[in-house]
Every structure is written in structure tokens, then in C-alpha cells.
User: Fold this.
Amino acid sequence: MSADTSLLTLLTTTPLFAVGLTLTAYLIGNGVFQRLKRPSWLPAILIAALLLAGALALMGLPYATYHQGATWLTVLLGPATVALGMPLYQQLPRIVELWRPLAICLPIAATLAAFYSLAIAWLLGSSDTILASLAAKSVTAPIAIGITEQLGGTVALLMGALLITGVATIPCVSLTTRFLRIDDERLIGFALGLNGHAIGTVRAFEISPTAGAFASLGMSLTGIFTAMLLPLAWRLIGMGS
Amino acid sequence: MPALSGFLWLISYWLIGEVVIYFTALPISSGVIGMLLLCVTLAMRGRVSSSIAAAAQPLIALLAMLIMPGVVGVFFIIGELAGQWSAILIALLLGTLLSVVTTLWLLKRLIKPTHVR
Assistant:
């Protein structure tokens, strides 16, 4: 047992173990997802996250140790957010084409995306910290982390909220489009990106490139809008610091 | 190495975002500011340089993997939030369903008329 522990200590002296573990889980998650014929209720990220959590628990590797090593990957979220400026630019003609409906829909839908869950959680008696952690649930991770830190929420809970929201968005969208008889890929993509951030966007790219383009548009705009709205809203209602 | 110089651009925009936040105290993350600056720059130049595309495309494709280390953290706070989970789950699942329905209903009402004419 002590030999195992010292081996684990040796392996985790560099971040490479944590990085390798993450890549392994991600690749296996993707492989299983393809093998299962891309089920909409079980996205690759959920499979990978479960595998990774299971592996950490089996090895007895503390999450803090793993997370420290994985910083080598998470630090890339900064430049990855900046990179979203590229699809945003590439879709400028489409934004201009549909600017009116999108400009009307986005503020309402992005506000409601945060509001519905906050209102339900508040009615069910959740604490201020939990509310602050759930507020950015529909925002893409790099932006959402910044928002949550400003609101005084827990980043770990936010990330869980992102996972649950993103995964839930996919079946919600396919049910609703069937119910409302919507087959316009632009609408489906926009709704996936607006509500389901990166996870919804990955799904939209599986439907079609057009859906994917509108999903990244919805994701970017929701991120920007929410990043400006939530901290102000929080200050107005006098929560957090 | 076009990807490397593109990556340097992305890092630079992120750092500029940090500087902007330091001086303006804007309530936005530096990544968002960098994203907007990148979009404005590309719009002014009228095209995406191959170096920026070479760096941005793989990073965007890996977005899901980059959030994984953080996402996994939720499995380790399950105990801490015992008793709160049903409220959190109901809020997230029901909230998401409601907001998806609202978004699609709004979009259908706003976009269909112009489409049918």
C-alpha cells in the first residue's frame, strides 16, 4: 500500500500525469460516444467526466492534487475564449441578416435562462452562495468562471451546473422542436448554443455546420450579455460583495 | 509555425483584456474583452489570417476538454452540499426546459414571418 502511495506521489510531481489522465478520459469518452452512435442524452463530455472522477476515486488521488496538475490545461481557457472571436467575426454577415430577431430574442432569452433556474432555486430555499454558483449556468465555461468569481459563488458547483445544464439542453431542444414543429437549423443551433453553451454547441455541429455556426453565435452572445448583466443585477439586488 | 504566432495573438489579446480590466474595473472577464477585440480586429482587416485560424480552431474544438478538470470537481463536493442537491437539480433541469421552450418559441415567432413572407 505504501509502495502504491509513493508511486502515486512520484507520478504527480509533474503536471503530466494529470494532463495525461484528462486526455485519456476525453479520448475514451469520445470513443464510447461514437460507439454508442452519438446518443443525445449522453454526450461525450459526461462519459469522460464520469470516467475521470471514477479514475481519481479508484487511485485515491485527491481532487486538489489532480486539479493543480490540470491547471496546465485549464489555463488555455483564456486564449480559447479569445478564440471565440473568430467564429463571431465569421458569422457577422449572418448576424446582420438576422440582427433584428436575434437582437430581440437574445436579451430576453439569455436573461430568462439565468432567471428561471435562479427563481426556482430561490423558491426552494437555496443559499446565496448556491444562487451565485447557478447564475451563470448557461454561459460558456471561461466566461462563466469569471462571472461566478465576481458574484461570490463556488466554481466547482458552477462547473457541475454547466455540465447538467449542457447535457439537459440537448434532449430539451429536440423535444421542444418536435412539439413546436421547428426544423430550421439556424433556430435549433441558436437555441442549443444560447442555453447549452459549449456542450450544446458541440451537439449543434453534429447536426450541421449551419446549426453549429448559429450555436457558437448564440453561445458567444449569451456569454457577453450575461457577463455584463449578472454582476450589475447582483449589485442592484444587493447580493454578494 | 503559423499556429504558434496565432497562439501568441490569442494570448496577447487575453493579456490586453487583463490590462483593460485593471484600468476600467469593468465587470467582464478578460477573455470576453479579448474575444470582442479579436472580432473587431478581424472585421477591420476583413479576413481571418491563417495563423489565427490555425490556433483558434483547435482551441475551440477542445473547449469541452478544457472544462473537464473543473467539471469533475462537482463529484467531490457532492457530500458538502448534501440535502441541497434536489433543489439544485430541480432548478437546473426545470429552468433549462423552460428557457429552451421560451427561446425556441420566441425565435419561431420572430423569424418565421419574415421567412414565409
